[in-house]
Write a structure and sequence with these properties.
The chain is of the alpha/beta class. It has eight helices and ten strands. β9, α7 and β10 form a beta-alpha-beta unit. The longest helix has 15 residues. The protein is globular, with a radius of gyration of 17 Å.
Length: 279
């Protein structure tokens, strides 16, 4: 479904019975809701959850802006997530965020505490400013971000070339289990086919938002689960430890062999944790 929310058109997908407890899934930067794969959402719904996923602006079928010119801020992205709950009539939800989505989830828990039943933070870092010094991204990932190890940008109208380019961009994030190339290619293809401008997804890296003081993470009073890859090259595990330490009562689970990603190989480990946490 598409809905007018916060001045944009957002595409929303749901699984399960709306009468069941809601789980809001918030994906990371440049990621459409396709990254919360349908079989994963279906398994979570089968456990008695009303699963909600949606496309951020500039991904999938939501409002798209020209590459390099996002017409929104990070604050808008946070408001979008809350607006999805409003549109669906959900008073409060179990909120799950990955990477940028995890930073957004932290802000929602602090700024809209009545909307959050539990919090699950995956592959992310403390969203607040002024926290402890934490290790930087790996040298290999830094080279990929700078363009040193990245192939030339493709002709975005050439589907196969665009998917190959985006797939290459996923490899530096993978952990020691390796990238599931076939599964990742399929996810990228689904997102590509639904987006009028796949290149616009990188606009997420250009937006700024309101800074959240690090000490406000101590205000989070809902049960919190931190899931972090042992091989995360974007946010080394110290970020997960710092996040769990900053939120009272938070539990940390390190996922062996996982990088800055959520591959299918992690589902059998994550789903039981998530189902128990949101019970």
């Amino acid at each position: 479904m598409r809905a007018s929310i916060n001045g944009a058109e957002l595409c929303i997908g749901t699984f399960g019975d709306p009468a069941d407890p809601a789980v809001l899934l918030i994906m990371g930067a440049a990621g459409s809701m396709d990254r919360w794969e349908a079989p994963f959402c279906g398994r979570l719904a089968a456990a008695g959850r009303h699963v909600i996923r949606y496309d951020h602006r500039d991904t999938g079928a939501s409002t798209t802006y020209p590459p390099g010119a996002p017409g929104y801020t990070g604050d808008d992205l946070v408001a979008d997530a809350v607006g999805v709950l409003d549109h669906l009539g959900v008073v409060s939800a179990h909120v799950v965020g990955l990477s940028m989505g995890g930073a957004m989830a932290q802000r929602i828990a602090v700024e809209h505490p009545d909307r959050v039943r539990t919090l699950t933070l995956m592959s992310t870092s403390p969203a607040g400013t002024g926290g402890p010094a934490l290790p930087p991204m790996s040298a290999a990932l830094r080279a990929a971000f700078s363009g040193e190890a990245q192939p030339p940008e493709p002709d975005w109208s050439d589907r196969e070339a665009a998917i190959a380019f985006l797939l290459a961009g996923e490899r530096p994030y993978a952990g020691s289990r390796g990238l599931d190339e076939d599964a990742t290619r399929a996810v990228i293809g689904r997102a590509y086919d639904r987006s009028p401008s796949p290149a616009s997804a990188d606009n997420h890296f250009l937006v700024d938002g309101t800074d959240l003081p690090f000490e406000r993470l101590a205000e989070i009073a809902v049960p919190t689960l931190v899931l972090h890859g042992a091989d995360d090259p974007m946010f080394p595990p110290a970020h997960g430890h710092a996040l769990a330490d900053a939120i009272p009562g938070a539990r940390l689970r390190i996922l062996e062999g996982i990088g800055h990603e959520f591959p299918r190989s992690a589902w059998d480990e994550v789903l039981p944790l998530l189902i128990t946490h949101t019970a």
